[in-house]
Amino acid sequence: MKPTKKLIYVFTAILLIAFLIANCSLKSVHAKNAKKINKKDSRYIYPLAFFKHRQLKLIEQLTQGPKRWRIALTSMAKAGHILAKNHIKYSIIIVAYGPGLKAFVMKYDKKYAETVKTLNKEHIKIVACGKSMKESGVTPEMLFPFVKIAYPGILAYIAEKEEQGYAFLKP
User: Fold this and answer.
1) CATH fold for domain 3-31+45-169
2) Cβ neighbours of residue 76 closer than 8 Å, sequence gap 6 or more
3) What pLDDT score does 24 carry?
4) N- to C-terminal Cα distance for the chain?
5) Does residue 116 contact residue 104 with C-beta atoms inside 8 Å?
6) 3-class SS string, 6-70
7) At 16, is the pLDDT very low, low, confident or very high (cuts 50, 70, 90)?
8) Is the confidence at residue 11, as pLDDT, over 80?
9) b/e per residue, 142-169, with b = 16+ CB within 10 A?
10) Which of 170, 152, 78, 159 is nearest to 115 (CA)?
11) 115 three-class SS
12) How many Å is the Cα radius of gyration of the chain?
């Protein structure tokens, strides 16, 4: 893939995520502001239209500690819900390594368990780093059953997905 094309995809993906987080639901924004929004007004951006006939491919890293999990996980869950609601084909993957790995350990922090289950319900794939698991003493049995494991580590998996056209997000 040409670097220019890849840059356009990354920029569009970032705009989409920012738009989704800011507005939570495209349909509700249009319903509330239908009379106020002038579609010819150049201030408004409608990034979902770009993906009506394309698949949105995102891979997000989760490496931070618990303070950032809520934002990262809920934004991806909302994005999956909004994309599905708007009939946009998508493939979202969250790769977890380092401190972010513990977000997917079932007994570590129960307040995020429902959000993690929502990610699975929205068909967002979660992949844990096998090397991080080994270093932190996490066994496959400790993870949610739907979490996949990249063995021996996550680096080659991320590179493979980028080569397949995924935009790599670092929150």
Assistant:
1) Hypothetical Protein Ychn; Chain: A, (3.40.1260)
2) 60, 92, 94, 119, 124
3) 44
4) 24
5) yes
6) HHHHHHHHHHHHHHHHHHCCHHHHHHHHCCCCCCCCCCCCCHHHHHCCCCEEEEEEECCCHHHHH
7) low
8) no
9) bbbeebebbeeebeebbeebbeeebbbb
10) 78
11) helix
12) 17
pLDDT at position 33 over 50: no
What is the Cα–Cα distance from 170 to 165, expressed in whole angstroms? 16
Q: Which residues contact 129 (CB under 8 A, 6 or more apart)?
A: 95, 96, 97, 98, 101, 149, 150, 153, 154
pLDDT tens per residue across span 110-152: 777 888 888 988 899 999 999 999 999 999 999 999 999 998 8
CB 97 within 8 A of CB 154: yes
Overall average pLDDT of the 103-113 stretch: 79
Contact partners, residue 163, CB within 8 Å, separation at least 6: 1
Structure-token pair, residue 66: 């618990």
pLDDT of residue 167: 92
**Nearest by Cα to 166 from 54, 37, 49:** 54
Number of H helices, E strands in the chain: 6, 5
Enter the pTM of the model: 0.73
